[in-house]
Amino acid sequence: MMKLWSALGAPGRLQFGLAMGLAAVAAIAGVVLMGLSGWFLVAGALAGVAGAGHSFNHLFPSAGVRGAAFTRVLGRYGEQLTGHDAILSLSARLRPRVFEAGARSRRGLSPMASADLTALVDDMDAAEGAFLKVVLPGIGVISGFVVALGLALASDVVLFVLAVLAAALAAGALPFLAVQAAQRRAAVLSLQADAARGDVARLIENATELDVYGALRRYAGEAEATLAHWQKESEALERPFRGLSAILSAVGVGMGVLALWRAAVTQGDLPMAAGAALALMAAFEAASAMLKVMEAAPKTKAASDRLADRLEGGAAAWDAAPETAQAIDSVFPLEVRGLTVSAAPGAPQTPVVSFRIEAGSVTQLAGSSGVGKSTLAEALMRLHPVAPDMLSYGGVDACGVRIASVLERISMSPQMPAFLPGTVADQLRLAKPEASEAEMRAALEAALADEFVFARAEGLESLIGEGGAGFSGGELRRLGLARALLAGPELLILDEPFAGLDKALADRLAARLSDWLAGGQRAILILQHKADGRGWPQKTAFSVVL
Ligand SMILES: Nc1ncnc2c1ncn2[C@@H]1O[C@H](COP(=O)(O)OP(=O)(O)OP(=O)(O)O)[C@@H](O)[C@H]1O
């Protein structure tokens, strides 16, 4: 948790500190309340028995009891408020940074697998909950014990020594060993849980299609059995903690009895012993309540560590170091010399290619399905590691250039662009947040998307639903193209831009893109199955056939 918090630059320091302070105040007030009540009841009763009830001062102890009760309630309330506030400030920094680090360190443009995404979200939930479930109660338990042991010392030294030993063993060593033992099992369980959740996520994602083949019922049965097994394993992990929790409550009661027994045999101060007895019982009870959720400790620790590692390894391993990176003024000429890459470790190598892209040109990278066109294009954007001397921008070897500065200059319009639910304007502004309406309109026109966007009454404010709902595949692709154009790249990579378009529409799109190229400062790279010369100025169009 600390590692993760520091990796995030220690957000919400004040709220975290306040919440911890208030947790300690609430716990101390709770133990004081019990101790003072015990002392008050017994001292009052003894005074009554001795016939001195009328001279016994009820005022201060009863005010003390009420004060402790108030402080405990206010402390708990404040702890909840500031604790949740602290977690919100952590989330506000954690979530974007983790997703950013994930996107930066991933290869290619393919979206994160749903199983990975579910595991990541679970980790974030667990790490965020750690503070409220483990850290704050832990502080409360320690503070409560300090006060209860202080009262035990004030009552009887032997009681104090025995209480320290009992606390160290039952509330310290045993839970520590249990957490250690659970840690290994929790790690295995977490892997099983990831796999089970991944299965369910894939099932939900593909439910409609699986149902068409009648496979949904079979796979749902298997997923259900896996989840049931995982649930049973989780319960097995919780069992020792529940046992320890019961032991701790019993030890607390035992300490209370011991305090009273010691006072009786040593003729000690009975009211003080009663106060110490109740305080010790309250402290052990609080530790017992915390132990019930201590099985979460190994899980939350593992989750926080995994997230901290993700943040630390945030940059792509093949990115140039900021201190030694070389700046580029332009990606042109973009030179490819004997370049070959693979989409992922173990994936097939793409064919070896050499070509040069100059400003003002159109290049077609043609080849059959699966040959490696998209992978090569992603490599040109530095989204895959490439060996030295295989790729350069304006004479600068790609290995020495920061990925971010390449992505400022090269945009890709993929076959299936990703959209967030929102309006058409929202999607366009993802590429250029400050884009004016006129700029958006111009980008839509260049991508031939203006016709279907402005045919709708809402125009730029038309809503795009989850997964692009409300628009056809071809329309979404042209919206993706408009967005890529709006980013203002030097090199625009188009993946199958004419797929699904009739010849007239394809020729019109080529003509619009030729206009976009007209200034001679930009270039286009087209990925398609077959090279063709449609509509491009002949002097600039050439093909690389894979
Ligand atoms: N994430 C991945 N992990 C493993 N292999 C991959 C991955 N992505 C792609 N591949 C493999 O790498 C090869 C090249 O894929 P790529 O998508 O670049 O081909 P393509 O020529 O663009 O295909 P298409 O025209 O069908 O889009 C294929 O054999 C593909 O199966």
TrEMBL record:
What positions belong to coiled-coil segments?
Answer: none
PROSITE patterns xrefs: ABC_TM1F, ABC_TRANSPORTER_1, ABC_TRANSPORTER_2
Say yes or no: keyword Isomerase present.
Answer: no
Q: Where would you find the membrane-spanning parts of this chain?
A: 12-33, 134-153, 159-179, 241-264
Any one GO cellular component localisation term in the record: plasma membrane
Question: Matching InterPro entries, A to Z?
Answer: AAA+_ATPase, ABC1_TM_dom, ABC1_TM_sf, ABC_transporter-like_ATP-bd, ABC_transporter-like_CS, P-loop_NTPase, Type_1_exporter
Single GO molecular-function term?
ATP hydrolysis activity
Limits of the ABC transmembrane type-1 domain:
18-291
Q: Domain named ABC transporter: which ranges?
A: 334-546
Which top-rank group of organisms is this from?
A: Bacteria
Q: Where in the cell is it found?
A: Cell membrane
- Which of UniProt's keywords are assigned here? ATP-binding, Membrane, Nucleotide-binding, Transmembrane, Transmembrane helix
PANTHER family, per the entry: ATP-BINDING CASSETTE SUB-FAMILY B (PTHR24221), MITOCHONDRIAL POTASSIUM CHANNEL ATP-BINDING SUBUNIT (PTHR24221:SF503)
Could you tell me what this protein is called?
Answer: Putative amino acid ABC transporter ATP-binding protein CydC
State the organism named in the record: Hyphomonas polymorpha PS728
Query: According to the entry, what is the taxonomic lineage of the organism?
Result: Bacteria, Pseudomonadati, Pseudomonadota, Alphaproteobacteria, Hyphomonadales
